[in-house]
Every structure is written in structure tokens, then in C-alpha cells.
Amino acid sequence: MRYPTPSSTKLSSEGSPVTKHSSRRISIESVASSKGIHSRKQALKSRASRYDPPPVRIKIHGLPGYTGGSLPPDVVDPRPPPLNLDGLECIRTLGDGACGHVLLVQTRDCPNLDKLDRPGSLFAVKVLSKERMKLIDRKHPGDTNAERTRLSELPWSPWVNGVVGAFQDELNLYLMLEFIPSGCFHDVIQTRGPFNAATARFYFANIIAGLYFLHGEGIIHRDFKPANILVRPDGYLTIADFGYARLDDGSGTSTEWLMIGTPLYMAPEVLCYQHLTGCSVDWWAAGVTLYEMITKRSPFFGTDEDKIFKRIEAGRYKWPKGLRVGASLKSIVAGLLNTKVEDRLGVDTSVLDHPWLDNIDWDKMQVGRYLAPWIPETPEHTRTWLNKALPKQHCIPGLQLSIPPMHREWDDRLPKSRPEY
């Protein structure tokens, strides 16, 4: 084989009809004349930068990024548009909360609905009147946005009825929550109670798990009662209605904790000036709830609020005659209903360490591996008769009202079977 000589290479280069590039010749000569691998790499990089265009930068979700050298024709946000009041319609009245009534809404089948949305999804919406919120803001400034603020700060938990969104119109504020269809725990106690020790232990373990989650996040419920506990379709319990919730940061004064909650479930320190420990008021209410599970009655019932408050301050209650209650069950109720805050169970010692709860496997309870003693048969709320009247359309101007068929309209056929707490 004949190798090219310098002279032949020079002649063939000079006789070539290809256009000469002076810049390239200078770059190659500079590489050949320089010594060392580092200088050669730098020269090759500088030569490549003249011909290779830089990668195109775009913004996706507000963050800069590269598209791999090519720009897509249009950058589309894959997330669906946020849900608003126009995409909801009211189909039912569920009940009343601490600061407003609760409605059942479903998503509408709109023509511009995103494919990721599910028409017919059900949510619970708490309607708060702006005029009423102004009055509350004058008396209790910290309670105005308490529920929305506290729920938005919480991570999702099966023990808490979580918030989905918040809206407003010219008259109301709307707080959209997860819909739990099986009713409240108060109705379960009244219809299926009193419970035996095993059933009460299961439900009270649910309550303990929920309260420990809230207190671990620094939140005090302050209006804990069976009416504010919802029953999930699997039979487990979920805490709801955070209208009076507060952070346990010690910043509030004693007057901000006075007379907060429902009279039958108020702790003694809420009735008069005492040293408050925050979570103690919830554990007192949990003790009242446990007593109700066993006896189907309140331990401090009275014909008026003055008598109720006197019995709470004295801390005296009696077990019904003829009811067999174990010593450990009486002990946990007595520890929760201790009038001295510093000695109350849950403040002085952990509730989890009480002997009455020794048989509970808390890891199984957290993941829902226990079989509930009662699985509710929940009817379809979109097809059953309305047991409460729907609000007027002018009262909820931002939320469309769905008129039910005649056979499902509310007609006040059933009287009230229990007082509203």
C-alpha cells in the first residue's frame, strides 16, 4: 500500500475544488502547534461551539428545563383545571355544623370538563355566611378561619375529615370536604347502643388514634363529641367539624378558652379560670363519649346548663344500677373524667398504656385490619328521599341548586327524634 507523502497531500489539497475555510485551518494549526492534551481539548470545544447550537430552554410549571435540543410545538400543563363552584351542584342538605349548614354536592357533567375529572363525584360543602363570620370575628378573631387553616395544614389521615377546596361568592364562604356517607357516631350510639366492652373498646381505639394524630400535629379540637364523629363505610370513625379548633402553641389567653364547645362535653377548665394544657379538653370529652357508649346516657346530664356546669365542676357521676362494668373500664373512665387537669389521663400518663387497651394492636388499627363490629349499609344519597329541606337558591347564589324529582322532595313527614346539640 502506498501512503500519502506530504508533497502529495499538499498538492491534492491545493488542487481540490472544495472551498477553503480559513477559520478552520487556523483552528487546526493552533491545535497542532499547541502542546498537551488539555490545550487540544479546549481547541476542539471552541471549534464545536461555533457550529452546534445551544440547547433550547423552556419553562414547565414555572421551572426552567431542557427539551433535549428540540422545542415542542406547545407546552401543555397535564394537570386538570381547578374545580370551582360552577362545576358543582347542590343535591341534598346533610345537617348543621358549628358555624353553618352542610350540603351534599356533586360535580356536574359540563361540556368543557377535563377528562381527568369524574362527573357525579360527591363532596360535603360547609356553607358559612359572611355576615355571621363577621360577628364571630369581632368576638373570637382566632376562630374565623380556624377550620380552613387547620385542615389545610394537616396531612391526609383516615382519622380526619380532610378539606378538598375553598370557594366564595357575594354572600357565603364554601368549604368543600371529603364526603363520608354513613352518618355520625351519635346516631349509632342512639340506635345500636349501649355497647358491650369489646365494641366500645374498638370505637374508643378509633377515637384515640384520631386524637393522637391531631395532638401530634399540634391541633386541639375543642368541640369533640359523638355528633362530630363520622362513620366511614368500613365501620371505622373519622373526626370532623373543626370550627373551634386551635393550635396548641400556648399563645392564647385563658379567656379565649372559656365556654367553648358543647355544654355536656365541656371540661371543668373551660368553665372557670384554670391552668390549661390544651389537649386535656379533648381527653375529657373522649371520657364523656366512652361513658355514653357503655350507658347510652350522659354522665353530667341536667335539665338546664347551670345544673350541667355544676355537675361538671364537681366531677360527680354515677354508673346505672344493674349495669355490669369491669374495674379496668371504670378506671379508664375515671382517669379521663378527672377534674384536675395535671392528673387527667392523657395529660399525666398516656392513654395507650392503660390496661383496658392492652389487647389492641395499634399497628393493625392504623392500617384498618380490624373488622369493625358494625358495617353500615349506606343508601345512595342521590336516589333516596330528602329528609331535610334544600336551601333557597338566593341563599347560595354561587352554587347551582339541583331540583329533585317529586317523589324525592322533602315534605317534613318525619318529626325530630332527638334534640340538636
From TrEMBL:
InterPro entries: Kinase-like_dom_sf, Prot_kinase_dom, Ser/Thr_kinase_AS. Residues 1-74 are annotated as: Disordered. The keyword Nucleotide-binding applies. Keywords: ATP-binding, Kinase, Nucleotide-binding, Serine/threonine-protein kinase, Transferase. Its EC number is 2.7.11.11. Residues 1-20 have a biased composition (Polar residues). This is cAMP-dependent protein kinase. It comes from Rhizopogon vinicolor AM-OR11-026. The lineage of its organism: Eukaryota, Fungi, Dikarya, Basidiomycota, Agaricomycotina.
